[in-house]
Design brief:
The structure holds two protein chains of two kinds. Chain A is of the alpha+beta class. Helix content of chain A is about 15%, strand content about 50%. In chain A, the strands form two sheets. Chain A has a six-stranded mixed sheet, with no helix packed on it. Chain B is an all-alpha fold. Chain B is built from two helices and no strands. The longest helix of chain B is centred in the N-terminal third of the chain and has 26 residues, at about 1-25. Chain B is flat.
Chain lengths: ~180, ~60
């Protein structure tokens, strides 16, 4: 009888472990970015930010940066005339209200090019909040850029202490976008 | 017969290694409290299992 008790306790610990994996994996604050340009849209899910390597969408960009620099970064291609819509969704899976300052900006070569949107969000427990903005590539390209030149800029989303980076790589003129 | 046990041994070893690898990958995404409680439960599980086998006379 006592022997079986130890077995049951071991099983209870195992079940508790599984429960923690499921519950702890679900609880937390998760952020997803929805990007739309032209007829295409991409969903950058919360796990992308945790990855130790860069994530490319929708197909690899062949001018690969050094991998360590791309940790938790999302790369996407675009064309010069594109207007890119971003929707940043924060999913609060906590038992309390989540409040944070969200600031979005465009950066190039470690310098801020412009601020996009800034807002204080307050999300009730197990609810979602979102922020939307549009980036026009034509406004960001340097005036003296040659048709055969590519250009990159980074959209930085700051949520409190957390920072998310999306690198937009603008193709040269006439360069086919890869899907 | 002996070969069968060797194969069982390999099967068990690979299963445990696979589950261990998946758990180690998943643990990265747990919160600090979750990691601590998981560690305590793992220790408890092995402790109770050891006691169970001890009672069996192993």
């Amino acid at each position: 009888m006592r022997r079986n008790l130890f077995l049951y306790l071991a099983l209870a610990c195992f079940v508790g472990l599984l429960a923690i994996f499921i519950v702890d994996g679900y609880l937390g604050v998760y952020d997803t970015v929805y990007i739309t340009t032209g007829e295409q849209s991409w969903k950058v899910e919360a796990d992308v930010w945790q990855r130790q390597y860069p994530t490319y969408a929708p197909a690899p960009i062949y001018e690969e940066p050094y991998l360590e620099e791309g940790k938790g970064v999302y790369y996407m291609p675009a064309n010069r005339g594109d207007k890119i819509s971003f929707r940043y969704e924060v999913d609060n899976r906590l038992f309390s209200t989540y409040k944070a300052d969200i600031e979005t900006s465009v950066w190039h070569s470690q310098e801020k090019v412009r601020d996009l949107k800034s807002q204080l969000i307050s999300i009730a427990a197990f609810d979602k909040g979102e922020l939307e903005w549009v980036v026009d590539n034509t406004e960001l390209l340097p005036k003296d850029i040659l048709p055969e030149q590519s250009y990159q800029y980074t959209v930085i989303i700051k949520r409190g202490e957390i920072e998310r980076r999306i690198i937009v790589s603008i193709n040269p003129v006439g360069y086919p976008r890869k899907y | 017969m002996r070969l069968t046990y060797v194969l069982y041994g390999f099967g068990i070893l690979f299963s445990v290694a696979g589950i261990g690898y998946l758990a180690a990958e998943y643990v990265k995404y747990l919160s600090e409290v979750g990691k601590l409680v998981s560690l305590l439960l793992t220790v408890g599980m092995f402790a109770f299992l050891t006691k169970y086998f001890q009672e069996l006379g192993w």
